[in-house]
Design goal:
Blueprint: E1 2-6, E2 15-19, E3 29-38, H1 42-48, E4 59-60, E5 65-72, E6 83-86, E7 101-105, E8 110-111, H2 118-138, E9 146-150, H3 155-166, E10 170-174, H4 177-184, E11 192-195, H5 202-210, E12 214-219, H6 226-232, E13 233-241, H7 253-257, E14 262-265, H8 273-289, E15 296-300, H9 305-313, E16 320-324
Helix pairs in contact: 2-3, 2-8
The structure holds NADP nicotinamide-adenine-dinucleotide phosphate.
The site of NADP nicotinamide-adenine-dinucleotide phosphate (NAP) has 22 residues, from helix 2 and helix 3.
InterPro entries: ADH-like_C, ADH-like_N, ER, GroES-like_sf, NAD(P)-bd_dom_sf, Zinc-ADH_QOR/CCCR
Organism: Brachybacterium avium
Protein name: Oxidoreductase
């Protein structure tokens, strides 16, 4: 089979697209005929080795997959012929999804409702699962709370806004003027307020809207000033950290701990099997119950694997890119 894989960690030049043997599922695993996958920011970190994880070579890239089960090991035969998805290939020793066939342990497979398209789910799983786990598993969101989302127009940020609004939160999101209407439309009328982060008065607007009242903050940009966040947090507020700039600013720990504010680091690569399954259900619910959709900006084939990673390294990817693998 023709696959996109690495023979060593490094730059995009390490990516090769050529023939590999079709893998065989072992007991408890299936072989998924992959129709759609996607490109995730974390793929660059796995490829380069910046996020250390097991990558047995030749190592197939790609985390998310939607397809049909075409072969099954003992104990997984009941899944044959079913349309399924997964969101945790391509790291932690598991071969990836940028191939026409991928082995998936059955506990990492999720059913796909008929009305959800392959490409939409492949593009949705990573950002929506991240949003789900950030809000619920790490953020302990409760209906009626006030949530600040940094980067509300982005892939993860828009999913955070939609999910928090769906759960009855009041949401304040940073988003440029050009994106504001799209972000506000992710929640029922009046539930989502936006502040343009490029506006020189953005910090003051956030203080006015939220000063001392933010129960939960998830900043997908990693750029919101920790001193500002300390002004915004409610007593017992939670800050879920999912991104950080190259030179993180000083964190005002004294101002945070004296308000019982907690900081929770979260990276989806460390989510458990149960958490990922819960997040996949959350992703489908988000697609079914809210207007949120992943913003698909490009659809490519396996031959684009290397150039996609070059664009990713150069910061040139906006929205979600879908990898179409089988017709
Ligand atoms: N921890 C995890 O498990 C996990 C999982 C998935 C993703 N991530 C990380 O999460 C981050 C976001 O990913 P993504 O795919 O959602 O990226 P994205 O679509 O590019 O979203 C980032 C958003 O941040 C906004 N932004 C940029 N500078 C800002 C500032 N100074 N203040 C407020 N907002 C600002 C951007 O808006 P403009 O460009 O319009 O300014 C954009 O809407 C990445 O660092 C990614 O690696 C982490």
């Amino acid at each position: 089979m023709r696959a996109a894989f690495l023979r060593a960690l490094g730059g995009p030049e390490q990516i090769e697209v050529s023939e590999l043997p079709v893998p065989r599922p072992r007991p408890g695993q299936v072989l998924l005929a992959v129709r759609a996958s996607s490109l995730d920011p974390v793929d660059a970190l796995v490829r380069s080795g910046a996020f250390p994880t097991q990558t047995p070579f030749p190592f197939v890239l790609g985390r998310d997959a939607v397809g049909t089960v075409i072969d099954a090991g003992a104990g997984a035969e009941d899944l044959l012929g079913r349309r399924m998805a997964t969101s945790s290939l391509g790291h932690d020793g598991r071969q990836g999804a940028w191939a026409p066939a991928a082995v998936v342990p059955r506990e990492r497979l999720y059913p796909v409702p008929a009305e959800v398209e392959d490409a939409v789910l492949a593009a949705a799983l990573h950002p929506a699962s991240t949003a789900h786990l950030a809000l619920h598993r790490h953020g302990h969101l409760v209906a009626g709370e006030t949530v600040l989302v940094g980067g509300g127009a982005g892939n993860v940020g828009s999913a955070l806004v939609a999910e928090a609004a769906r759960c009855g939160a009041r949401v304040v999101a940073t988003a440029r003027r050009r994106d504001a209407a799209r972000v506000r439309a992710l929640g029922a009328a009046g539930t989502v307020t936006t502040v343009d982060h490029t506006d020189p008065g953005a910090a003051d607007q956030l203080r006015e809207l939220l000063g001392g009242r933010a129960d939960l903050v998830v900043d997908t940009s990693g750029r919101l000033d920790p001193e500002l966040l300390a002004d915004l947090m409610a007593v017992r507020g939670r800050i879920v950290v999912i991104a950080a700039p190259p030179n993180p600013p000083r964190i005002p720990l004294a101002r945070l701990y004296t308000r019982d504010v907690s900081l929770h680091g979260f990276v989806i690569s460390r989510a458990t099997v149960e958490e990922l399954a819960d997040a996949a259900r959350g992703t489908v619910r988000l697609l079914q119950e809210t207007p949120w959709r992943p913003r698909i900006t490009d659809t490519v084939g396996l031959d684009a694997a290397r150039s996609l990673h070059e664009r990713l390294d150069a910061g040139g990817i906006e929205g979600r890119v879908v990898m179409r693998i089988r017709a």
